[in-house]
Amino acid sequence: MTEKHEDWQLEQQRINNVLDEIEHKKEKLREKVGDVKGEVIGLRENFWEDVTVNLDEHDDVVETVNSLKQQAELLGERERSHKHFYDQLKTLQRMQKNPYFGRVDFREGGDKEAEEIYIGVGSLMDQNDEDFLIYDWRAPISSLYYDYSPGPAEYETPEGTIEGEMELKRQFIIRDGDLKGLFDTGVTIMDELLQEVLGNNANTQMKSIVATIQKEQNQIIRYDQSKYVVVQGVAGSGKTSAALQRVAYLLYRYRGKIDADQMMLFSPNPMFNSYVANVLPELGEENMEQTTFQEYMDKRLESRIEFEDAYTQLEYLLTAKQDDYYKTRLQGIRFKANLAYKDVIDSYVQDLELEGMIFRNVKFRGKTIVSSHEIHEYFYGLEDYITIPNRIEMVAAWILKRLEAFSRKERDEDWVEEEIEMLSKEDYLKIYHKVQEGRENEDRFDDYIREQAILAKAIVNKYMKPIKRKIKDFQFINMTAIYRNLFTRDQDVAHESWKAIAEQTNEQLQTNLLFHEDVTPFLYLEDQLKGIHSYNKTRYLFLDEAQDYSPFQLEFFKQLFPNARMTILGDYNQAIYAHNLNAPTPLSEELYQDEKMEKMTLLRSYRSTRPIIEFTKGIVPGGEDIEPFNREGDAPTVTVAEDWAEHTDAVVGKIHDMEEESYDTVAVICKTAKEAREAYERLKHDVDIRLMDKDTYTFEKGLILIPAYLAKGIEFDAVILYNASDEEYHQEIERNLFYTACTRPMHELHLFSLGKVTRFIE
Ligand SMILES: Nc1ncnc2c1ncn2[C@@H]1O[C@H](COP(=O)(O)OP(=O)(O)OP(=O)(O)O)[C@@H](O)[C@H]1O
Question: Which residues make up the binding site for ATP (predicted)?
Answer without folding.
Answer: 233-240
